[in-house]
Amino acid sequence: MLEDLKIAIEENKVILGSKRTLKYLKLGKVKMIVIANNCPDNFKKDLEHYTKLTGLKIENFDGTAKQLGIVCGKPFSVATLAILSETK
């Protein structure tokens, strides 16, 4: 998962943030969702609901939102992110 994430970041195919992740998930433009282990429960439940409808799986990042932000090269916490599918 971490290798896919790094490639997607390099190719600029990552959406950061819970609201934007949920928006792109509803639009069917997501191939993978990654959540930090301290993602707020309300966002986690929403994402779980919509991933069941779309058949996608949620990948759990083994670290905090701050650590996920660091992996993404951002100076802020990232609780959720989406890797976009090839077709837009």
Overview in brief:
Helix content is 44%, strand content 22%. With 88 residues, it is of the alpha+beta class.
Could you characterize the architecture of this molecule?
With 88 residues, the protein is an alpha+beta fold. The protein has a single domain (2-84), classed as 2-Layer Sandwich (60s Ribosomal Protein L30, Chain: A). The protein contains 4 helices and 4 strands; from the N terminus they run H-E-H-E-H-E-H-E. The protein has helices at 2-10, 18-26, 41-54, 65-71; strands at residues 14-16, 30-36, 58-61, 80-84. It has a 4-stranded mixed beta sheet. Helix 3 (41-54) links the parallel strand 2 and strand 3 (58-61). Helix 2 runs parallel beside helix 3. It is globular, with a radius of gyration of 12 Å. The chain starts with a helix and ends with a strand. The model has no long low-confidence stretch (mean pLDDT 92).
Which features does this protein show?
88 residues; alpha+beta; 60s Ribosomal Protein L30, Chain: A; 4-stranded mixed β-sheet; 4 helices; 44% helix; 22% strand; globular
